[in-house]
């Protein structure tokens, strides 16, 4: 692995993004717009908005970055740039961490806008600080990137790639505690939920919602999500083959 | 003369189909070698084996003294795939600079390569907005950055206008004179005469490995297309007997 190559790869991916203004606009505007929708849905429901909006601030970057990355990586495979890159001094992890870094930065901008809109325009109220929410959102985005890179190895077409959203992302959404508190689920569902990294991300956000200072539980949750992202990146590296049939 | 590439008894299967049937050949260093053959003859598979991205069934491929695909070769071998493998959503310059950075080379090296393929005037344009011929030249530029010791080019001149094609072949010979080895595939016979040496391949078998002059002499005709045909007929005649 080479830091120079990792950084120049991240810069290249950000340049590609910059040429695609519509994608940039969608990345920045959509989460804030959806939060506004939530705000009006729960206009008279008091703290419900606070609870759901907080969780959503963590879920949006995860889902969006998963989708964007799995398509971006699939394009590297289908246009031949991946095969070419693997004949250069670039290491597999340079490419994968380059993606993590680039989309992680994009997610930071996205999260800053969404969190800013939530707190200052929509009156989101949490006991903990908004900065921690941004941090958790970025880590979640990197998790989405890592899983997207890994899953794209199993898709040959864009049609297949988008199908991994319901397979990989939706079960994590259903069991993360947003719809039914995890403590009230059947034992086996809780076990499944425990195995999903998104559950820890949502728990970390709940900690920020309830406590003024970052708690040990929150840091532990965040460490688990980070660890899951790194494991997914390493697994994704294992799916990159320099030699193919 | 030392050889840049040595292929011994190379057998490649893709799926259940045998694509290369025990090919052996050498490519001399510092020359322009043409890999000629019709579409589907196994040219791309042979090229992929040489750059080390093809899983091979048996046989060996040695490139610049190392097994094909060795990590050290990634610094010294430039590879251009048949379909232009550059980023359509980046400009020519951004593409070239990215590939330069992978080799630790500068933006000036990138500009030089863009100029070498005659794309300087389009260097600010997005690759996706270029014509097919310009796109493949952009892809070529990205492989030429920093003058690799071996350049493997899969059909680099398809869709280029005749003047540019002549320029590119001129460029290939300049590089060869400076010590770079070039292996250039083509399915167009009129390019064969521009090579120092020819490998003729058909249905996964090597049917000719010589200089254009020697191939003309063996086949007894000045026309390389005709010579190729005669080589095939001779071979089939031998097999029929």
Structure report:
- The complex is a heterodimer of chains A (245) and B (241).
- The model of chain A has no long low-confidence stretch (mean pLDDT 93).
- Chain A has ten helices and no strands.
- Chain A has 245 residues and is an all-alpha fold.
- Helix content of chain A is 79%, strand content 0%.
- Chain B is an alpha/beta fold and 241 residues long.
- Helix content of chain B is 35%, strand content 27%.
- A six-stranded mixed sheet of chain B has the order 6-7-8-3-9-10, sandwiched between helices.
- Chain B is globular, with a radius of gyration of 18 Å.
- The relative contact order of chain B is 0.17.
- The chains are: A mainly alpha (245), B alpha/beta (241).
Strand content of chain B: 25-35%
Helix-strand category of chain A: mainly alpha
Biggest sheet architecture of chain B: 6 strands, mixed
Work out the helicity level of chain A: over 70%
Oligomeric status of the shown chains?
Answer: heterodimer
Shape of chain B: globular
Topology overview:
The complex is a heterodimer of chains A (245) and B (241).
Chain A (H helix, E strand, L loop, with lengths): L2 H17 L1 H21 L5 H32 L2 H5 L6 H30 L8 H23 L5 H18 L11 H9 L1 H14 L5 H24 L6
Helix pairs in contact in A: 1-5, 2-3, 2-5, 3-5, 3-6, 3-7, 3-9, 5-6, 5-10, 6-9, 6-10, 9-10
Chain B lengths: L2 E12 L2 E12 L3 E5 L6 H9 L6 E6 L2 E2 L9 E4 L11 H11 L4 H10 L15 H13 L5 E5 L7 H16 L3 E6 L10 E6 L2 E6 L1 H8 L4 H17 L1
Parallel strand pairs in B: 3-8, 3-9, 6-7, 7-8
Antiparallel strand pairs in B: 1-2, 1-4, 4-5, 9-10
What's the short story on this structure?
Chain A has 245 residues and is mainly alpha-helical. Chain A has helices spanning 3-19, 21-41, 47-78, 81-85, 92-121, 130-152, 158-175, 187-195, 197-210, 216-239. Chain A has 10 helices and no strands.
């Amino acid at each position: 692995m080479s830091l120079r190559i990792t950084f120049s790869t991240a810069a290249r991916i950000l340049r590609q993004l910059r040429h695609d203004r519509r994608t940039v606009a969608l990345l920045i505007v959509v989460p804030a717009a959806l939060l506004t929708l939530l705000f009006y849905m729960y206009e008279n429901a008091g703290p419900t908005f606070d609870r759901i909006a907080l969780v959503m601030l963590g879920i949006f970057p995860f889902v969006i970055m998963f989708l964007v990355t799995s398509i971006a990586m699939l394009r590297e495979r289908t246009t031949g740039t991946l095969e070419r890159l693997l004949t250069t001094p670039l290491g597999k992890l340079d490419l994968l961490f380059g993606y993590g870094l680039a989309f992680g930065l994009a997610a930071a901008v996205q999260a800053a806008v969404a969190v800013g809109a939530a707190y200052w325009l929509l009156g989101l109220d949490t006991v903990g600080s908004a900065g921690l929410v941004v941090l958790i959102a970025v880590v979640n985005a990197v998790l989405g990137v890592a899983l997207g890179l890994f899953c794209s190895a199993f898709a040959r077409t864009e049609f297949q790639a988008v199908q991994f959203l319901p397979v990989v992302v939706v079960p994590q959404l259903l069991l993360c505690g947003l719809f039914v508190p995890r403590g009230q689920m059947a034992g086996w569902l809780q076990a499944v939920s425990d195995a999903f990294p998104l559950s820890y991300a949502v728990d970390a956000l709940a900690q920020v919602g309830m406590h003024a200072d970052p708690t040990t539980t929150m840091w532990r949750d965040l460490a688990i999500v980070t660890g899951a992202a790194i494991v997914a990146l390493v697994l994704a590296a294992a799916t990159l083959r320099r030699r193919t049939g | 003369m030392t050889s840049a590439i040595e292929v011994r008894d190379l057998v490649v299967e893709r799926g259940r189909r045998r694509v290369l049937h025990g090919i052996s050949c050498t490519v001399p260093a510092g020359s322009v070698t043409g890999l000629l053959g019709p579409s589907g003859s196994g040219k791309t598979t042979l090229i992929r084996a040489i750059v080390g991205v093809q899983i091979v069934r048996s046989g060996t491929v040695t490139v610049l003294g190392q097994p094909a695909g060795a990590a050290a070769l990634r610094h010294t071998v430039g590879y251009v795939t048949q379909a232009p493998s550059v980023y359509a959503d980046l400009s020519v310059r951004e593409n070239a600079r990215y590939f330069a950075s992978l080799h630790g080379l500068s933006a000036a090296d990138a500009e030089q390569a863009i100029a070498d393929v005659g794309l300087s005037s389009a260097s600010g344009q997005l690759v996706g907005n270029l014509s097919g011929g310009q796109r493949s030249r952009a892809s070529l530029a990205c492989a030429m950055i920093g003058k690799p010791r071996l350049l493997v080019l899969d059909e680099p001149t398809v869709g280029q206008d005749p003047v540019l094609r002549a320029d590119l072949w001129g460029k290939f010979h300049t590089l060869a004179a400076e010590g770079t080895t070039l292996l250039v595939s083509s399915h167009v016979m009129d390019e064969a005469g521009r090579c120092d040496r020819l490998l003729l391949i058909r249905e996964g078998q090597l049917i000719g490995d010589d200089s254009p002059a020697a191939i003309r002499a063996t086949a007894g005709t000045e026309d390389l297309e005709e010579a190729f045909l005669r080589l095939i007929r001779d071979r089939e005649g031998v097999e029929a007997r």
